[in-house]
Every structure is written in C-alpha cells, then in structure tokens.
Design a protein that fits this description.
With 360 residues, the protein is of the alpha/beta class. It contains 15 helices and ten strands. It has a six-stranded parallel beta sheet, sandwiched between helices. Strand 9 and strand 10 form a beta hairpin. Bound molecules: NADP nicotinamide-adenine-dinucleotide phosphate.
Length: 360
Amino acid sequence: VSRCKLAILGITGSIGSQTVQVAQHLGCDIVAASAGRRIEKLQSLKDVLGIDVIYSPYGNFDRKAFEEAVYSADAIMVALSDVSEMPLVLKLLESGKRVAIATKEMLILGHDLFAPYRWKNLYPVDSEHATVYILMRPYVPLVKEIYLTASGGAFRDLSLQEIDNLSPKDALKHPVWSMGYKITVDSATLANKGIELLEARVLFDIPPSKLKAVMHREVIVHAMVVLHDNFTLMGAYKPSMLLPIQFSLTYPNLKASLLKSVNWHEQTLHFQDIPIDKYGMYKLAIDVLKTDDKKLYMLYLIADDIVVERYMKEEIKFSQMPVLAEKIINTLSDSDIPTYPEDRVEWYRQMKERAKEVAI
Ligand SMILES: NC(=O)c1ccc[n+]([C@@H]2O[C@H](COP(=O)([O-])OP(=O)(O)OC[C@H]3O[C@@H](n4cnc5c(N)ncnc54)[C@H](OP(=O)(O)O)[C@@H]3O)[C@@H](O)[C@H]2O)c1
C-alpha cells in the first residue's frame, strides 16, 4: 500500500505542528509545507521530517516547485493565520483535492467562493465545526438548530469591572486550550465564539436565527445539532485539536486516534447561557450574524484584529473593544467586495490598513 501524502500550509504554527503529529500517527508523508517568517524552523522541519518542498513568501523559494508538490498531495491542511493563499486554496478545491481549512478568516472572506465545495472536498478543522460536520452530514435537510459550545475563556468567573482592572496578559491564561495569542484573547472576549458562528453560517448554510452558542465550562461537548423532531445529537471528546485535525484528513474513514476517551463514569456536564452584557465583542458578532450581510462578517474580523492589537498594547480597556470595533465596521461599510479571489485578498489587506486609522 502506498503511504498517504500530505501538504501543510502553515506548518510552524499551533495547528500546523499538531497536524504533523497526526500525520506521523497516520503514517503520512509530508510532501510540501509552508510558513511565514520562521524560515529557520521551517528548514529544520524539512530536514527532520524529510519534507520534499518548502516555501515561505519571505524567503528565496521556488514557488512553482512548491505548488507542484502541493498538487501531488492527497490532502492539504490549511493552517495559516493569513488569507493570502486563498487563490491557491480555491484552485486546489476546484481540482478536486481534499482540502481541510482551519483558517476561519479565509472561510469567511471567501464564503461564496467556497460554497460549491460544501459537503464535497472541503473539510472544517475548527473543533466545533468538525463536530457539527460529523453530526449533521447524514441529516442536512433535517437540521433545526446548531449549538456551538464556549469554554468562557480566561475571564469567565470575573465581572466586567474586574476584567477592566486586569492587564491584557491575564487574558492569555486560557483555562482549557493552549493556542496562539490572537485566538486566546478572542476566547477571553468570546469574539472567537462570535467568529465561529459566522464561520458556521458560511460552512453549513443554516439561517442565522438557528445558530446558537452556549457556555459549557468542561469543553467535553463541542457542538450539538438539533433535528426537526427535537432529537439532539451531541459530539463529545476530550478537548484537543488532534481529533478534529485527524477527522478533517480521514473522514468518512475512522482511524484509531491519539486521544484518550472521556471517563463517562466521572464526567459532569454543565450548560448555561452566555452573559451577553459582559461579552460586548460577542454581542456585536451576534448583531453582525443576524444581518446576514457577508461584508459585515468580513469587517467584523478586521475590526476584531485591530481591537485585539490595541488591547494588547494597553491602549484600550476590555470594555472599550466593542465600541471601537463597531466604529471600525461602520466606517468601512461603504466599500464594495471584489469578486476575484486575488482582488478580495488585496481588498482585505487594504481594509485592515484603513481600520488602523480609526480612533476611538
Ligand atoms: N490554535 C488552535 O487551536 C485553533 C483552533 C481552531 C482554529 N484555529 C485557526 O487556525 C488558524 C491557524 O491558527 P494557529 O493557532 O495555528 O496560528 P499560528 O500558531 O499563529 O500559526 C500560523 C501559521 O501560519 C503561518 N503563516 C502566517 N502567514 C503566512 C504567510 N503569509 N505564508 C505562509 N505561512 C504563513 C505561520 O508561519 P510562521 O510561524 O513562520 O509565522 C504559522 O505556521 C487560525 O485561523 C485560527 O483561528 C486555530
């Protein structure tokens, strides 16, 4: 039997390195890999893992050889923190390749362009969405509601006033997951859950009013799908990206995973409503979701990026983040979204630049 071949875009990151772990577990060869500025790390991964071709936009690499190697893979993992590879990702989907996408920003930016590949060769990686995918796939026309769960992030047991008196560094202490800093702050503000609802909207084509999130501090249930007869399907596993990553590369085939099973003899589960007044960034995301205007979805992402940056530099407080974000969205909402992938990536970059100039 020939070994499976994998390409990993963004191999040096958190999802990228966990994909390497899964690839080794599944016995796959990594034929192509890319990264951003950490070129030394990329080079050492090439040597250690025997990757055929590597690429970074910040170094002197052969782009053509890289794309050829990517096309030779059986499956491609998109684990980038950047949207610039969207044109390549779309071409890979069009050619029929299996593409697993972790990059929420890319899925939302290219929402209509990705739609033809829904339930075909496009697979979500985000744990909640991978879970919804597995639960929902046999019942697509029968789905009444989708619930995503939220851990509550670093500030879940504090009041808004207490949070405002803390340093942003405290937002980086996530109670459950260990991730990059942007997504960890997004978990503390619950903007991440808001973005995930926008992502669910574009991935599963379920109306905004049927997409919900609930607080679930144990993070054992990752998502729930309610069918028309009120039968609820729950997807549960220990909090780890290893399983959703593996699923995105192997579904519908199930293989043994690196994850231990939940001890159901001892596990308790709690669910509660999200206190929306405390989480202004989440509230803003819900308002944006309800408009169903995909341009506003993209502008929410941009606004969130900027407010996280300002918050981390201690220029604004936690409670001011949604105020500035809303101002950014309103200021930029007059622009039109281009159709072509390359133009859209450029539009996104320009909007980010414009957003930086909006002051509170
Ligand atoms: N971490 C999680 O648990 C998690 C869970 C669900 C979804 N996600 C989503 O998955 C995506 C990746 O998250 P992450 O936490 O893995 O981020 P990360 O740790 O910051 O890694 C990002 C990766 O993208 C690479 N990269 C950035 N710009 C690039 C460019 N222009 N060209 C090539 N490579 C580039 C980085 O390379 P360098 O190392 O060289 O900078 C790095 O390998 C995000 O959209 C995130 O929201 C993450």
